Amino acid sequence: HAELPEVRDEPDFKGNFARWYEDAAGLRQQDEMTAEDRVTPLDRWFGWDRAILQGRASAANDPYFLDAVDDQSYITLWLDKPLGLEFLENPRDEGGGVVVGMVHSGYSAYSAGVISAGYLLIAADDAPVYGLPFDDAIKPIADCEGMVKLTFFTGSPSYFYGEFRPPSEWLDGFFARLRAMRPPEDQ
Fold first, then answer.
1. For a FRET experiment, which of 17, 44, 129, 184 has its CA 20 to 30 Å from that of 171?
2. CB of 103 within 8 A of CB of 109?
3. Number of neighbouring beta carbons within 10 Å of residue 102
4. What are phi and psi of 105, to 5 degrees?
């Protein structure tokens, strides 16, 4: 006489695949992913993981690195119009906003001696303009009569818009400190 067959649940291929994919893609992960979390076996096999992890670890040791959460990485000044600044639209893939393309001699920006090409315009007349389209970013400058207050980030767009970008809470505090600043004759 024959034994009864052992009855088991059928494998849930679709559900198992979905869970495997969610785990691999980090969709069910609660914490923010770090550079270490993004390293794949293929990265390790080709040795790319060292470049990924060294790039993250050594950014603070980079002589050109500017910390976006350090007030010393910003310049705020009041300039008379015409400014003598040529603004360019920063590419969208680099965060957008406006960057100084050229400082023309004979104008107030050149006379100030502290603005260089490549600086990112962060605020104009106490209005945050970082990441805005070109026309919107320069509107506070065009609308201002007399002296205009400008704030620049002196580092690379990747440090302001990229992985090392300042948290929104820090930016809120920074803009509050900017609003409290008075023109040089009032200080």
1. 184
2. yes
3. 13
4. -70, 155
User: pLDDT, tens digit, for every residue of 4-50?
Assistant: 888 888 888 888 888 887 777 666 666 565 666 666 777 666 666 66
What's the pTM value of the predicted model, to 2 decimals? Answer: 0.66
Contacts of 136 (CB under 8 A, 6+ apart): 129
Q: Identify the three-state secondary structure at position 22.
A: helix
Tokens of 3: 């034994």
Sign, CA dihedral 104-105-107-110, equals: positive
Cross-strand bridge partners of residue 75:
152
- The CA distances from residue 34 to 37, 57, 159, in Å, are 5, 11, 16
d(CA 27, CA 15): 15
| Closest by Cα among 175, 158, 172, 169 to 66 | 158
Q: What is the identity of the amino acid at 48?
A: W
